[in-house]
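Design request, tokens follow.
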């Protein structure tokens, strides 16, 4: 989970692969200023409660923050890598469901 400090704020953000959404928390000391879990507009992901990349950028902007282009590219790439490619999934299913191999 990337965590950064900026102007007295602690920002934690990233991609939650099992839940299929971006998350974000912004704190000042012990005070939680923002959490996607408390955001009624955060409805992305398998069970809701998460952010899209666009929403993540907007929520950071609400606090005067922006992510560098390299970080945005890395986060966008995380989404693509989080889902298995069809050939990999096909091979995995074949190996799991195929006849038992002798040792």
């Amino acid at each position: 989970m990337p965590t950064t400090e900026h102007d007295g704020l602690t920002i934690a953000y990233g991609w939650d692969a099992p839940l299929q959404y971006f998350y974000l928390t912004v704190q000042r000391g012990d005070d939680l200023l923002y959490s996607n879990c408390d955001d009624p507009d955060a409805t992305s992901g398998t069970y809701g409660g998460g952010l899209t990349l666009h929403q993540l950028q907007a929520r950071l902007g609400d606090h005067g923050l922006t992510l560098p282009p390299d970080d945005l590219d890395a986060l966008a790439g995380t989404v693509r890598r989080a889902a298995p490619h069809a050939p990999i999934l096909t091979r995995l299913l074949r190996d799991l469901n195929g006849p038992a191999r002798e040792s």
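Comment from the thread starter after seeing the answer: thanks! The chain has one domain: 3-97.
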